[in-house]
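Our preliminary data section would be incomplete without showing what the modeling component actually yields. Below, a chain of 292 amino acids is followed by its predicted structure, encoded as C-alpha cells that our downstream tools consume directly.
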Amino acid sequence: MNQQIAIVSYFSVGAYDTNTTDENALLSSILCDMGISHQVVIWSDPAIDWSSFSCLLIKSTWDYFDYYEEFKQWIAAMRKLGIPVLNSLDTVEWNSSKRYLLEVSAKGFPVISGFILEKGMQVSLSTIQAKISSEVIVVKPLVSGGAKNTLKITTKDWQKHQSQVQSLVNEESYLVQPFVKEVEEVGEYSLIFFNGSFSHAVLKSPAKHDFRVQHYFGGTIEQIIPSSKMLKSAQDLVGNFAADTLYARVDGVQCNDEFYLMELELIEPYLFLDISEEALSNYKKAIAARLL
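Predicted structure:
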C-alpha cells in the first residue's frame, strides 16, 4: 500500500524552538529509512491538500494556542476528511485546554490542577484564596504552551498585579495554580511513552532565579532513570488518559515522595529524541508498529 505521510508542523518565527534539536528532521529520517513517502507541512497553510495524505503525524504544531480558533477549525476539517491522525483528533482536542487537569484530578490522581478564572469574570484575591491555599500562585492561560503569559505572583503583592490579571482574563480564560517550590528548586520531570510503553525520561531544571523549565528560557536538561514509584504513577496516567497514543509525555513534580502531574502532553510535545540512541530507537519502533 502506497503511503504519503504528513509531518504536521508550524510556521516557525523562533519563539518556541530556540535551543532545540529539529525533531521534524529526525522523524523525516526515520520515515526515509522505512521507505515511506512524506512531507513536512504547516497545519495553518491554506494551500495544503490534506486529502492527498494517508496519515497525519502531528509533530510540532507549536503555535496552536496562538491561533486556537483556527486550530479547532483545522481539527474539524481533518475530522471531515476521515484521515488517520496520530495522535487522534479526539485526543488532541481533549488535551488542548488545561481543563483536562481538573478532570484528571477529579478521578483521584495527584495533580497540580488549580482553579479556572473564566473569561470576563471579576478576579479577586479572596476568590482565588478560597480555592488555593498558597502564598505564591501561578497564573497561565487555559489554552497555552511554552510559558506564554505565565505569571508568578506572591499574594502579598496581589494589588500590584490585579489589574494586569484582570486585563488578561477579560481576553481569555486562565488557570490559577499553587506555585510548587520543587519546580524552582529541583525541576520538572518528563517521562516519555511510545505506544503506551515507557521510553525515556529527563529532568528539566530552570535557570537560576527563574521558575520556567523550558530550554528556550535557559533551562537545563539531563536524562534520568525514574524511580519505580514515579514510573508507575506516570504509567497509570498514560493507561487511563492516553491509552491509544503514539506518543505521550508526562510532566510532573516530586513532592513529599509523591509524583504530581503538571501537564499531560499529547499534542505536540518535544520528545527529547537526542538525549540517547535508545530514545530515537524506541520512537522508530513505535512508528513502525503504526505504519508498517
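The mean pLDDT is 93. Residues 277-291 form the longest helix (15 residues). Preliminary results of this kind motivate Aim 1 of the renewal.
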